[in-house]
Amino acid sequence: MLFNSVGYLLFLPVTVALYYLLPGRWRCVFLLAASYFFYLIWRVEFVLVLISATLVSYFVALKMGQIPKKKQRLKYLVFSLVINLGMLVFFKYLGFFTDIVNQIAGITGGSSVIPYYSILLPIGISFYTFQTIGYTLDVYRGVLKPEKNIGIYALFVSFFPLVLGGPIERGRRLIPQFHINHDFDPALITGGLRLILWGMFKKIVIADRLSIYVQPVFNEPGYFNGIAIVLVVMLKMMQVYADFSGYTDIAIGSARLMGIKLNPNFNRPFSAQSISAFWSRWHISLTSWLRDYVYFSLPFKYHGKIVKWRMNLNLVITFVLVGFWHGPYWNFLIFGLLHGFYMIMANISRPFMSDFNRISGLTKAPRLLQGLNITATFLLVCFSAFFFGQHQLRDSFMMIGNLTDFSHPGKVIIPLLKNNDFLLGILLIIFMLWFEYLIAKKSFALKFLNKPLYLRFTAYLIMVFFLLVFGVFSSQNFFYLQF
Amino acid sequence: MTRNKQFFTKFCTFIILVLVVNMALNAVYNHWMYYFRLSRNQDAQFEAYSDTLKYLMLGNSHDRVNPEILGNGFSYMTPKESYIQTYYKLKYILKKTNKKPENIFLSIDPVNFSPRTEKDVSFDGYWRKYLNYYEMAIENHDPGYFMNWFTGNFCSYVGNYKYAYMSLLFINVDLLKIKNGYIPARNYKNFAKEPDREALGFEIATAYLSSYSKKSVLGESKYYCKILALCKQYKIHLMLLRMPMTDEYLKYARKMVDLDKLDREIIDITRKHCDDYQVFDFRNEFHGKPEYFFNADHVNPDGVKIISLKIKQFTIDH
């Protein structure tokens, strides 16, 4: 069931209504049943993987909770990691590694050594596996007590707003919320509905409209020249943002309807002034997960001293994982490597850049410096978008190769400027960025909520009918559900 | 408790407001939508048509044969019409009106069989009177058709801002120009004068034909076969058309679809379901003559005239 489907529009209000009508002790049982139903709709077999991930991490955590010494807990942690990561590797990465082995065998003159099996990827596996691993690691580190109620724990893993595409939640934040009896709170309901409406707007009106321009170029890159490619790669970043942040808003809004607060996943990433700031604002739940459980777990010392090259190496490893988490494609590996490279270059050039800014007088014009930094970060991120997707790697390089082809720019630009749909897409991007800038200001929300009811209703009605009239209703999947 | 009561009152008020605005928008859109007005006009003309119905032209905007040139004909082509819609409209004509055509024109171009368009249903605000959405959903195992029924009946404007805008532009259009159902081909630009015909050809080919699977060219073709079966049942002669394509469109179409194989497969399937048909192949009729096209995949009035006269000549000769 997709968030942007009619099925979900029926499922959500029924679930929320029943949730509040039921007595407190039955609510979690009901939510668990609703979440499994929500997941079952995709494919019955997928539930087995979800149940396995839940049971393994639940029992391992319980066992670790009984062992006081961290060292003795290690073997259980390893067991849990092997099973959970093993399932992830099996379903998501087996084909990729099989291909590599067979290609190496082919190069060395042998025939295929491993038969290739096409395995269907259980939806949401990357998200809930990371959630269970995070939980197990927290219990191992002793920062979280294991959850004894298997129903609550199963709900933590399968909670329907986040099981398909995150945000990747932490046990210590989410599990306690399932123990509380949430009273019906009109403020939470209206807040949740507002978020859902804004999320739907970003997905249906903006992301799906932009995909009309992005998809053909990424499908047939050979036919397009530099201007078209530059335009489309920028639009792609906006499309992915509108799509995934729209998804996240719907997820957070849906959870809020039941009194559950989820972590934000985005914080206006295109206003970031550096790549590291970008990653602290983009897919926050994944990057903070990798920071806490991978980056800080890697060794920083060499011969007893903290060394820079180790830090840089750790950055590269972490970003390769960021890339590879998205999928078993060379594209994503290069995407991760590229961002790792950006981070190292930023670290190396920091002293030089501050000198340059001082000497050139840019420090005296902070607004200009801010604008330049935002533009440079955006362009670097856009360049990495060539590798962000499941298209062929050679297509990525073909597009980069075609970047310098500026033949007949008018043939690209003029029809686009005459195209109402394209202009509408551009205006909507500007509106989205401006509106999110306003939302980020608390004073705006307060001012809006203090407006007379008829004005607020008018604003909501405009939003609803703008969505209905200008939306692209072709049931397009969410971009991040493929991961 | 009072707070909750207040919330529910406000919430219900908002929902009622949404429903009222929706009803108003739906009514306005259904009344003024340009294509709906064209199609309703065709319906009225068809109802009033009293001559012998020798030729009935079905299909979409690509399939233009002027019934005035042929004589005793009626053009019932509507924009974006797919085989599924053609089937239900033909069924309606044969079973619910007393008009029985002797010959039916139907195009067999790659766009008609494209997996993307074959079962595509649009403009439900008009089509709801012909289509059996329940039957379509059951036969195709696709509950999406229920959504088509819903939008067609209650909110046909959804997602259609382009058509609303177009309807504003054509608000004063003279529907009297439509004779015997024939909507004149568009003529406000000429494909020969386009600066980048190659790009336009590619754009159209990608939009309509990129969903073809190269392994098996022809998809299910369920509704094409149903049309053939209806024609056979009512002893109607089928005149199958391959409409002209611009060189640029054809070039990219050939890259995306094995057109020769597709044509062979279409004829094979036609032969299986119908024995009274003939094929008019105009695909290369305007090779090297972009001036006969309005855009990459639509002929202009001059092109329609040539095609219609050729068919007329054929009917005289045979």
Q: What is the strand and helix layout of this fold?
A:
The complex is a heterodimer of chains A (483) and B (318).
Chain A: H1 6-21, H2 24-40, H3 44-65, H4 70-107, H5 125-141, H6 150-158, H7 160-163, H8 171-179, H9 186-219, H10 226-257, H11 275-279, H12 284-293, E1 301-302, E2 305-306, H13 308-326, H14 330-360, H15 366-384, H16 393-402, H17 409-418, H18 420-440, H19 442-449, H20 453-470
Antiparallel strand pairs in A: 1-2
Helix pairs in contact in A: 1-2, 2-6, 3-4, 3-5, 3-6, 4-5, 6-8, 9-10, 9-18, 9-20, 10-15, 13-14, 14-15
Chain B: H1 2-32, H2 34-48, E1 55-57, H3 67-70, E2 73-75, H4 83-96, E3 103-107, H5 110-113, H6 124-127, H7 133-140, H8 144-154, H9 161-169, H10 197-209, H11 222-233, E4 237-242, H12 247-256, H13 259-273, E5 277-281, E6 293-295, E7 298-299, H14 301-317
Parallel strand pairs in B: 1-2, 1-3, 3-4, 4-5
Antiparallel strand pairs in B: 6-7
